[in-house]
Design a protein that fits this description.
By secondary structure, the chain is α/β, with parallel strands linked by helices. The chain contains eight helices and nine strands.
Protein backbone atom coordinates (compact mmCIF):
# COMPACT_ATOMS: atom_id res chain seq x y z
CA UNK A 1 0.00 0.00 0.00
CA UNK A 2 3.05 2.27 0.04
CA UNK A 3 4.63 4.60 2.59
CA UNK A 4 3.52 8.08 1.45
CA UNK A 5 2.16 10.84 3.68
CA UNK A 6 -1.26 10.23 2.14
CA UNK A 7 -1.07 6.54 2.99
CA UNK A 8 -0.08 7.39 6.56
CA UNK A 9 -3.19 9.59 6.79
CA UNK A 10 -5.30 6.69 5.52
CA UNK A 11 -3.83 4.48 8.23
CA UNK A 12 -4.65 7.10 10.86
CA UNK A 13 -8.24 7.33 9.59
CA UNK A 14 -8.50 3.55 9.57
CA UNK A 15 -7.19 3.44 13.12
CA UNK A 16 -9.77 5.95 14.35
CA UNK A 17 -12.50 3.62 13.10
CA UNK A 18 -10.98 0.36 14.28
CA UNK A 19 -9.47 1.40 17.61
CA UNK A 20 -12.46 0.29 19.74
CA UNK A 21 -12.22 -3.20 18.23
CA UNK A 22 -8.50 -3.37 18.95
CA UNK A 23 -8.84 -2.14 22.52
CA UNK A 24 -11.52 -4.74 23.16
CA UNK A 25 -9.22 -7.46 21.75
CA UNK A 26 -6.28 -6.37 23.92
CA UNK A 27 -8.39 -6.24 27.07
CA UNK A 28 -9.82 -9.70 26.40
CA UNK A 29 -6.28 -10.96 25.75
CA UNK A 30 -5.23 -9.71 29.18
CA UNK A 31 -2.80 -6.99 28.10
CA UNK A 32 -2.45 -4.92 31.23
CA UNK A 33 -0.22 -2.94 33.60
CA UNK A 34 3.47 -3.81 33.66
CA UNK A 35 3.58 -6.04 30.58
CA UNK A 36 6.26 -5.93 27.88
CA UNK A 37 4.60 -5.79 24.45
CA UNK A 38 6.02 -6.13 20.93
CA UNK A 39 4.04 -4.45 18.13
CA UNK A 40 4.84 -5.84 14.67
CA UNK A 41 4.48 -3.43 11.74
CA UNK A 42 3.46 -0.55 13.96
CA UNK A 43 3.13 2.11 11.22
CA UNK A 44 2.35 5.53 12.69
CA UNK A 45 1.74 3.91 16.06
CA UNK A 46 -1.96 3.73 16.86
CA UNK A 47 -1.70 0.14 18.11
CA UNK A 48 1.55 0.87 19.96
CA UNK A 49 0.07 3.88 21.74
CA UNK A 50 -3.03 1.91 22.72
CA UNK A 51 -0.84 -0.86 24.14
CA UNK A 52 1.34 1.71 25.94
CA UNK A 53 -1.69 3.18 27.68
CA UNK A 54 -2.78 -0.29 28.81
CA UNK A 55 0.63 -1.36 30.19
CA UNK A 56 1.36 2.01 31.82
CA UNK A 57 4.69 3.40 32.93
CA UNK A 58 5.75 0.13 34.54
CA UNK A 59 5.33 -1.67 31.21
CA UNK A 60 6.88 -1.11 27.80
CA UNK A 61 6.09 -1.32 24.10
CA UNK A 62 8.65 -2.11 21.41
CA UNK A 63 7.42 -0.94 18.01
CA UNK A 64 8.80 -2.45 14.80
CA UNK A 65 8.41 -1.07 11.28
CA UNK A 66 10.36 -0.81 8.02
CA UNK A 67 9.14 2.78 7.42
CA UNK A 68 11.47 5.16 9.26
CA UNK A 69 9.20 8.15 8.58
CA UNK A 70 6.28 6.33 10.17
CA UNK A 71 8.44 5.64 13.21
CA UNK A 72 9.28 9.36 13.40
CA UNK A 73 5.55 10.08 13.53
CA UNK A 74 5.16 7.56 16.35
CA UNK A 75 8.10 9.05 18.29
CA UNK A 76 6.52 12.51 18.06
CA UNK A 77 3.09 11.22 19.07
CA UNK A 78 4.51 9.36 22.05
CA UNK A 79 6.46 12.44 23.14
CA UNK A 80 3.35 14.61 22.83
CA UNK A 81 1.52 12.25 25.22
CA UNK A 82 4.46 12.10 27.60
CA UNK A 83 4.98 8.39 26.95
CA UNK A 84 8.48 7.24 27.74
CA UNK A 85 7.66 3.53 27.52
CA UNK A 86 7.60 3.25 23.70
CA UNK A 87 10.77 2.15 21.89
CA UNK A 88 10.89 2.35 18.08
CA UNK A 89 13.00 -0.12 16.10
CA UNK A 90 13.60 0.29 12.37
CA UNK A 91 13.59 -3.29 11.10
CA UNK A 92 11.39 -6.05 9.70
CA UNK A 93 9.91 -8.85 11.76
CA UNK A 94 12.17 -11.50 10.24
CA UNK A 95 15.39 -9.67 11.10
CA UNK A 96 14.54 -8.59 14.64
CA UNK A 97 16.61 -10.13 17.43
CA UNK A 98 15.44 -8.84 20.83
CA UNK A 99 17.43 -8.71 24.04
CA UNK A 100 14.57 -10.21 26.06
CA UNK A 101 11.29 -12.05 25.66
CA UNK A 102 7.88 -10.38 25.71
CA UNK A 103 4.62 -10.90 27.55
CA UNK A 104 2.62 -10.16 24.40
CA UNK A 105 3.16 -9.85 20.65
CA UNK A 106 0.49 -7.90 18.78
CA UNK A 107 -0.26 -6.75 15.26
CA UNK A 108 -3.07 -5.27 13.18
CA UNK A 109 -3.33 -6.07 9.45
CA UNK A 110 0.24 -7.36 9.33
CA UNK A 111 0.01 -11.08 8.59
CA UNK A 112 -2.05 -10.29 5.48
CA UNK A 113 1.13 -8.95 3.86
CA UNK A 114 3.45 -11.79 4.95
CA UNK A 115 4.50 -14.47 2.42
CA UNK A 116 4.51 -17.08 5.21
CA UNK A 117 2.21 -16.04 8.08
CA UNK A 118 2.64 -19.39 9.83
CA UNK A 119 6.40 -18.83 10.04
CA UNK A 120 5.76 -15.38 11.51
CA UNK A 121 3.47 -16.81 14.20
CA UNK A 122 6.02 -19.50 15.03
CA UNK A 123 8.66 -16.79 15.39
CA UNK A 124 6.28 -14.82 17.64
CA UNK A 125 5.93 -17.88 19.86
CA UNK A 126 9.69 -17.98 20.38
CA UNK A 127 9.69 -14.30 21.35
CA UNK A 128 7.19 -14.86 24.16
CA UNK A 129 7.61 -15.67 27.80
CA UNK A 130 5.89 -18.89 28.95
CA UNK A 131 2.13 -18.26 28.89
CA UNK A 132 2.73 -15.13 26.80
CA UNK A 133 -0.04 -14.08 24.45
CA UNK A 134 -0.31 -13.21 20.75
CA UNK A 135 -3.14 -10.94 19.61
CA UNK A 136 -3.76 -10.16 15.96
CA UNK A 137 -6.49 -8.49 13.91
CA UNK A 138 -6.64 -9.37 10.24
CA UNK A 139 -8.97 -8.63 7.34
CA UNK A 140 -10.85 -11.24 5.35
CA UNK A 141 -11.67 -9.77 1.94
CA UNK A 142 -13.74 -12.81 1.01
CA UNK A 143 -16.35 -11.59 3.51
CA UNK A 144 -17.45 -8.08 2.59
CA UNK A 145 -20.88 -6.72 3.44
CA UNK A 146 -22.63 -4.61 0.75
CA UNK A 147 -24.36 -1.36 1.64
CA UNK A 148 -28.07 -1.31 2.51
CA UNK A 149 -29.95 0.02 0.69
CA UNK A 150 -27.65 -0.80 -2.21
CA UNK A 151 -25.02 1.74 -3.27
CA UNK A 152 -23.91 0.63 -6.77
CA UNK A 153 -20.70 2.70 -6.88
CA UNK A 154 -19.52 1.62 -3.44
CA UNK A 155 -20.46 -2.01 -4.01
CA UNK A 156 -18.66 -1.99 -7.38
CA UNK A 157 -15.51 -0.65 -5.72
CA UNK A 158 -15.81 -3.30 -3.00
CA UNK A 159 -15.78 -5.91 -5.75
CA UNK A 160 -12.58 -4.44 -7.18
CA UNK A 161 -11.01 -4.47 -3.69
CA UNK A 162 -11.96 -8.12 -3.25
CA UNK A 163 -10.54 -9.09 -6.65
CA UNK A 164 -7.31 -7.15 -6.13
CA UNK A 165 -6.56 -8.43 -2.66
CA UNK A 166 -7.38 -11.99 -3.68
CA UNK A 167 -4.28 -11.98 -5.91
CA UNK A 168 -2.05 -9.43 -4.12
CA UNK A 169 -2.02 -10.54 -0.46
CA UNK A 170 -3.20 -13.21 1.98
CA UNK A 171 -6.77 -12.08 1.36
CA UNK A 172 -8.43 -14.74 3.56
CA UNK A 173 -5.98 -14.53 6.44
CA UNK A 174 -8.74 -13.60 8.89
CA UNK A 175 -10.60 -16.89 8.70
CA UNK A 176 -7.25 -18.74 8.80
CA UNK A 177 -6.07 -17.21 12.09
CA UNK A 178 -7.53 -19.89 14.35
CA UNK A 179 -5.92 -22.66 12.31
CA UNK A 180 -2.58 -20.87 12.00
CA UNK A 181 -2.31 -20.11 15.71
CA UNK A 182 -2.93 -23.75 16.60
CA UNK A 183 -0.42 -24.90 13.98
CA UNK A 184 2.13 -22.44 15.40
CA UNK A 185 1.91 -24.04 18.85
CA UNK A 186 -0.56 -21.84 20.70
CA UNK A 187 -3.40 -22.99 22.90
CA UNK A 188 -7.00 -22.94 21.72
CA UNK A 189 -7.40 -19.39 20.28
CA UNK A 190 -10.29 -17.09 21.10
CA UNK A 191 -11.53 -15.47 17.89
CA UNK A 192 -14.26 -13.11 16.76
CA UNK A 193 -15.39 -12.10 13.30
CA UNK A 194 -16.57 -8.49 13.18
CA UNK A 195 -16.67 -5.31 11.11
CA UNK A 196 -17.36 -1.62 11.76
CA UNK A 197 -20.66 -0.13 10.58
CA UNK A 198 -21.65 3.49 9.98
CA UNK A 199 -24.00 5.32 7.66
CA UNK A 200 -25.05 8.43 5.81
CA UNK A 201 -23.25 10.63 3.29
CA UNK A 202 -20.96 12.22 5.90
CA UNK A 203 -19.44 9.03 7.27
CA UNK A 204 -15.61 8.91 7.17
CA UNK A 205 -15.96 5.41 5.68
CA UNK A 206 -16.16 7.01 2.21
CA UNK A 207 -12.77 8.69 2.53
CA UNK A 208 -11.34 5.53 4.10
CA UNK A 209 -12.37 3.38 1.13
CA UNK A 210 -11.42 5.96 -1.49
CA UNK A 211 -7.93 6.41 -0.04
CA UNK A 212 -7.43 2.66 0.17
CA UNK A 213 -8.27 2.42 -3.53
CA UNK A 214 -5.90 5.29 -4.30
CA UNK A 215 -3.08 3.39 -2.59
CA UNK A 216 -3.45 0.17 -4.55
CA UNK A 217 -5.01 1.35 -7.83
CA UNK A 218 -1.78 1.46 -9.93
CA UNK A 219 -1.03 -2.13 -8.93
CA UNK A 220 -4.62 -3.20 -9.61
CA UNK A 221 -4.43 -1.71 -13.10
CA UNK A 222 -1.09 -3.43 -13.72
CA UNK A 223 -2.66 -6.73 -12.66
CA UNK A 224 -5.58 -6.07 -15.03
CA UNK A 225 -8.17 -6.33 -12.27
CA UNK A 226 -11.58 -5.90 -13.98
CA UNK A 227 -12.95 -2.39 -13.54
CA UNK A 228 -9.81 -0.91 -12.00
CA UNK A 229 -8.80 1.14 -15.03
CA UNK A 230 -12.27 2.74 -15.20
CA UNK A 231 -12.14 4.22 -11.68
CA UNK A 232 -12.19 8.03 -11.65
CA UNK A 233 -10.07 8.54 -8.56
CA UNK A 234 -10.74 12.27 -8.27
CA UNK A 235 -14.53 11.74 -8.16
CA UNK A 236 -14.75 8.42 -6.33
CA UNK A 237 -15.31 9.71 -2.81
CA UNK A 238 -17.81 12.33 -4.01
CA UNK A 239 -19.82 9.77 -5.96
CA UNK A 240 -19.99 7.40 -3.03
CA UNK A 241 -21.22 10.22 -0.78
CA UNK A 242 -23.81 11.31 -3.34
CA UNK A 243 -25.37 7.85 -3.61
CA UNK A 244 -25.57 7.35 0.17
CA UNK A 245 -28.84 8.34 1.80
CA UNK A 246 -29.13 9.54 5.43
CA UNK A 247 -30.29 6.09 6.57
CA UNK A 248 -27.97 4.04 4.38
CA UNK A 249 -25.75 1.52 6.18
CA UNK A 250 -22.15 1.14 5.00
CA UNK A 251 -19.73 -1.40 6.43
CA UNK A 252 -15.98 -1.72 6.64
CA UNK A 253 -14.13 -4.87 5.64
CA UNK A 254 -14.63 -7.95 7.79
CA UNK A 255 -11.97 -8.56 10.43
CA UNK A 256 -11.06 -11.46 12.67
CA UNK A 257 -9.76 -10.58 16.13
CA UNK A 258 -7.88 -13.49 17.71
CA UNK A 259 -5.63 -14.12 20.69
CA UNK A 260 -3.98 -17.22 22.10
CA UNK A 261 -1.41 -18.15 24.71
CA UNK A 262 1.87 -19.96 24.32
CA UNK A 263 1.64 -23.50 25.66
Amino acid sequence: MGHSDRERRRLALQASIQQPFTEDLFRRAGITTGMRVLDLGCGVGDVSLLAARLVGRTGSVTSLDIDEQALDVLRNRAAAEGMVNVKCVHTDAGSYRPEHRFDAVVGRHILIHMPDPLAVLKACRELLEPRGVVAFQEYDFGLMSPAYPACPERDRVYGICRDFFSVAVQHDIGRRLFHLMVEAGFEHPECRGEFPVDGGPDTPFHEWLAEAVRSFLPKAIALKIPGAAAIDMEMLETRMRQETGPSTMVAGPSMFSCFARRK
